[in-house]
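Reopening: structure tokens for the iron/sulfur cluster complex, inputs below.
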Amino acid sequence: MRSFPKPRIVLSACLNLKPVRYNGQEVRDEFVLKLLPYCEVLEVCPEVAIGLGVPRDKVIVYKKGDSFGLSQPSTGLELTERMNAFSEEFIKSLPEVDGFLLKSKSPSCGVSNTKVYKDEKGEEFYSKGKGLFALKIIKSFELLPVEDEGRLKDAELRSNFLTRLFAIASLRQEFKNISRVSQLMDFHQRNKYLLMSYSQKKLKELGRLVAQAKAETLKETLQLYRKLFLQALVKKPSKGQHANTILHIFGHLSRHFNQKEKNHFLKLVEDYKSGKIERRTLIEFLRAYSYRFEKDYLTSQTYLYPYPEDLN
Ligand code: SF4
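Re-run output (same inputs, fresh job):
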């Protein structure tokens, strides 16, 4: 069984049970409560950081020319520059982090479902969008997972967020101690099927990089590996990509099964693709038989153990 690193995440302070919302309250989210003990948390409340008190009048996002602005309609305060300046300073001050978990719908932190208005008085609705702080974060950390607790109610998005978060945290922590090419090979091998599920193309690129790695240029290789690894995980895998990965893993086990058993497994994969069963059923099957047939190569795969079980 895999031991997990502690991802370092930036969290909206109100999700960390701090009563900093405009109405003086905090947010209680069951998934966030479950996740936090597994993480190293850096919390932030951008609205408090720019000097708005608690409680405070509501602020809004509005369409400002080609971009977006922030204002407080009740006081007529224009807050765009303050928020942008804070966001830039905050980003510069951060250590290496693995991801962001922000508050949905917020004019500052929202990654989704933030109400955007046509004007700074908030008189006319324009569309749903993102908060001003979140926009800066997404732009500056395009290779890291940035989500809000609202989007993470969806099981697939949650699984994808956790998979990336723990994969990136392992990369950050393990790479600090890599001093030999063989250690990089070992890391790559354990992540082979995880990478395959996200991008066959990037898996090949990374495989070539590792095969050509040399002790004298290991530092540069690690830097390039990190970049390609993060790029590989940007796009959420489709069901087809998962099914393909699962079949590759099954290929290591299939000689132990008779034809009827193989047909049954293939039928389960089709059932997964058509939405009749969950991916988890197939993963449990592969885990169990990897142990049964003592396939250490498989039991060490991060694809089969992407994050702690309790977070499922
Ligand atoms: S959503 Fe962001 S700005 Fe609003 S209270 Fe929470 S942390 Fe502060």
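The mean pLDDT is 97. Residues 239-311 form one domain. Marking as resolved unless the reporter disagrees.
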